[in-house]
Structures are given as C-alpha cells and as structure tokens.
Amino acid sequence: MATPERFEDLSRGLAEGVRSRPEFAGIVLLGSASDEAAARRDEWSDHDFFAITREGEGRMLRPDLSWLPDPDRIVLTAREGEIGFVAVYDDGHVFEFAFSDAAELDGALAEAATVAVDDEHRTVGRLLDESRARAAAADTFDPVTDMKLVLVKLLIGTGRARRGEVLNGGDFVRGWAVRLLVRVVRGRHADVSTSARDTIDPMRRFEQDFPEWSARIAEAVAQPVEDAARALFDLARAELEPGWPDFPSRAADAVAARLDWR
User: By residue range, what is the domain housing residue 98?
Assistant: First the structure.
C-alpha cells in the first residue's frame, strides 16, 4: 500500500525520470494520479499515465524502463501489447502506462489528467486535449442496442455453459452481459449518474451512482453461470421493460423460449 506521501514521491519520481531523458517529450498523469482527481485516492489507487517520447524514439526506448523511480523496488514489469506496460513495486503499488510517441496514441481517451512534464512544442498538452475531446465525444449511450446485446450475450453464454464451456459461458454472462447492462442502466437513467462516474469506463464507480442495481447484479453473478444469466434476464425485464416501449420484448420472449426459461 502506498501512503499519500509515497504516492506523491512516486509522482515526482516519474516526472524527474522523464525530465532526465532528452528522448522524452513529457508525461501525463491520469485518473486518481492526476491533481484534479486526487481526492478520490485510496489505498488501492495506482498510477496510470502516458509516458510520451519524442517522435521516432518510442520503439527504441521501450526496452529500457530504468527511468522509473526506485527501480530497485520493482518486482515485476510486463508488456501489454505494443505500447502498454505495467510495473509492480515491492509494496504492491502498481504503475499502468502507455510508453510511446504521441502519434502512437492516436485514438487514446483521457478524462481527469495532469500534464507533469511537457516539451517546447506542447506535445503532451496537445495529446491530452485531443484525448479529452475524443472521450467527450464517445461519452454517449444507446440503451436500445445495448439491451439487445445483453440478450445476445445471455443466450450465447448460457448455451456455451450447457455445452460444457463453463469458463467461456461465464465470461459472456458475467463479463459481456454485465458491462452492457451497466451501459443500459446509465443510458436509461442518465440523470442519476453523478460527477463521480468515469466517462471512459461506465463500470467504474457504478456502485456509487446505482447502489441497488449494483447489489442485485453482484448477487446475480455470484451464482452458477445459467442461474446468473437467468437472474440478469429477470432483473432486466422486471426493472427496465415496464414503461419502456423500445425494450426488445419480442427478442426477450424468443430467448426465454429457446432456453426454456418459463
């Protein structure tokens, strides 16, 4: 667990490490690592950030993580794809970061963020502006489509579980269907979502905005796969279908008939 002092020390260490290397354009701290979201930090908060290299330097620099603070305390580093990285310290603190040229982050999304280091061309600031604009444009919901997809994932997941593919079926039910159902709830009840919500990931802090829905979904998915699927299906029909003329009722009836959910 990183104390508040340790958290700030690591933030400063990241900035110093980037400043010490001329190949870097800068660094932007994201989420709870940023100044604007500092109030929501707790013992489980980690450091999310973009480490931005100067144009053409990313591929060459990526094998070298010696610029990270306190390298002697790092117990694990791993890559997630081409530009994604993770590092874990001996106290369990986590870094999750993209390490790349700005051009390689085309399409990135950002919400709360702090530019800790930038170059003379404002490379990092411009990247952040573009990422925030993309996040704002993507912050929309289509509850009708999402509800249709919930039904599809429940149908496929239950079928896979009945076939004996319990792990894969569980992923469809507890993963895909739940994420889509959360989007449906946020889309149908946008006025309930507070400023605590994450505009990039609707699942984040869903419990704060919809505690009753969260509890019932959690109770549903704690069951075996088909029981979980049936509970989510019943929850959606009981709480969302009444008074919603666009609810895909005919499709829900077909799913129930196919699965013999009487």
Answer: 4-138
